[in-house]
Amino acid sequence: MDGEQRRKILLEYLKTEKEPLSGGELAQRLGVSRQVIVQDIALLRAADYKIFSTNRGYLLTDHQALRRVFKVRHDDDAISDELFTIIDSGGRVLDVFVNHEIYGEIRANLFLVDREDVERFNRKMLLGNTSPLKHLTDDIHYHTVEGDSEEVLLRVEQALKSKNYLES
After folding, report:
1. Looking only at Cα atoms, what is the longest distance across the chain?
2. Dist. CA 53–CA 63, nearest whole Å
3. What is the pTM of this model?
4. Is 35 part of a structural domain of the chain?
5. How large a percentage of the chain has pLDDT more than 90?
6. DSSP state of 133
7. Where are the strands (E) in 43-103, listed by range?
């Protein structure tokens, strides 16, 4: 099979799966190396497919969804509540990023779509003995949030505002 055929099949896998697919799993399914998958993903992104790399694998996002960036600030005890607030309001947390004084923008893809994803993320934070990015910028950080409608994004904004997480 040539590269174009392989990328079509790769897209079909990503479209039909609800959970992220790892590069290793895709490579095995298609009978190629992980490096070939990485190159194919780069070519698909260049063709304007919205493919996210998460810590669990690749995910193709809905082209119809709307996105908004929220600037937030809270202490470490509120991390779970902030993420649950976004999810419970109908949003999906695509990433977290900070604007560092020296290094510029530092971004990590999250793609949290439900409470289970948030709980898994929190367990990894606790077990991994790591610090949140917000520690680099006096707790100020940003999330790109995706929603199926403008109403969802407004609901997320109001929920974050009501908990005093939004930063102006």
Report:
1. 54
2. 16
3. 0.71
4. yes
5. 68
6. G
7. 51-54, 57-60, 66-73, 92-100
Is the pLDDT score of 136 beyond 90? yes
| pLDDT at residue 63 greater than cutoff 60 | no
Same domain, 80 and 99: yes
Contact 57, 151 (CB under 8 A): no
- 62 band by pLDDT with thresholds 50, 70 and 90: low
- Chain centroid offset of residue 18 CA: 14
List the one residue out of 7, 11, 33 whose CA is nearest residue 21. 11
DSSP-based three-state secondary structure for 68: strand
Residues 28 and 94 both lie in one domain: no
Q: Are 37 and 27 in contact (CB under 8 A)?
A: yes
Residue ranges making up the domain that contains 37: 3-60
